[in-house]
Amino acid sequence: MAGVSRTDEAISAPSRGEHRRRRARRTPLNLVAISGAAALTTVVIYLAFVRTFTGQSVDQLAWSGGPGRHSVWSPTSAHRYELLSTIGLSFALVVVITTGLIRRKPRMLAGAAVLVTGTWVTVQLLKAALGRPWLTDVPGADMINTYPSGHTAAAAAIAGAALLVAAPAWRALTAVVAGGAATAMGVLTLHAGWHRASDAIGAFTVELAWLAAVVVCLVWWRGRARHQDSRRGRWAFTTLATIAMVASTWGAVGMIRTALTVRRANDTVTASQARRAYSSSVLLVVSMGALTTAVALSGLAKIELDPDTPLPGTAHGPEGQASTGS
Questions:
Q1: Mean pLDDT for each consecutive 10-residue tract of the chain (326 residues)?
Q2: CA–CA separation, 276 vs 58, rounded Å?
Q3: Could you tell me which of 18, 279, 281, 304 has the fewest CB atoms within 10 Å of its CB?
Q4: Residue numbers of the domain that contains 228
Q5: Which pTM does this prediction carry?
Q6: 150 contacts: CB under 8 Å, gap ≥ 6
Q7: Distance (Å, whole) CA 17 – CA 288
Q8: Would residue 198 count as lying in a domain?
């Protein structure tokens, strides 16, 4: 009888190994790869634009060509930009929390909280831990590390949180609106003179790494694959990818020209060249904002993070119900 009882128990209750196999089958490997690639890109951007002469010079020259070089010292302008960013971030965060509460999605709210907190803490740790050697003679250069941008990271993280709490039918529109707002925040940090272009770009990659990791955990928790893709999702992805491609192409061409200029020791960089470098840096920030949003949208395209119907094999699913029978 004891042997029969243990057999019945083994049949009714999935083993620990079976739970691991089911979790492995639900693991979105593309999101694991996205998280790792984004984290690696964060390191590469730092090494390229902070730890090399050419990268640091180009980044600093682009900053010097922006309006923030002059307006950042104005107390009125600085207060206006700070107030605008604070109000915008606070309003967006309230909208995300309210949406999650209305939809009764505590798991998504928990994931959003982890995303925002993890992104913010990571950015602050990187700022404190990473150094900035003095490698360039471009005017205005300093040794204070500003990589990555905290304002941009906060805006991007809230945008990612909006994707988590949004209903699947509204996720494409949410991606366009929230991703556009986060990109605008990245551009604002350049315009205000708070950050260099690499700071904003690195903030986007930090947020994407956290978003992909959080989604993987949510899928393990209770997610599953979807068999249909949204037409609006495909349209939004195509639009964002096109913006990223066009902006990155023009921005890269301008930055390459700037790099060739700073590499010629005998050349004197003019104000017009600095302004062109700034315009190119803005395009690169726009392209990274659009690219990371498109990648996040594609990763979420065929995933249900918190399905209304229980998953097979869980305590509330069909197999779980059968296991509670006599």
A1: 47 50 62 95 96 89 78 62 89 95 93 96 94 74 82 97 92 95 95 92 97 92 68 90 96 90 68 88 97 93 69 42 37
A2: 11
A3: 18
A4: 28-65+73-311
A5: 0.83
A6: 120, 123, 124, 127, 203
A7: 41
A8: yes
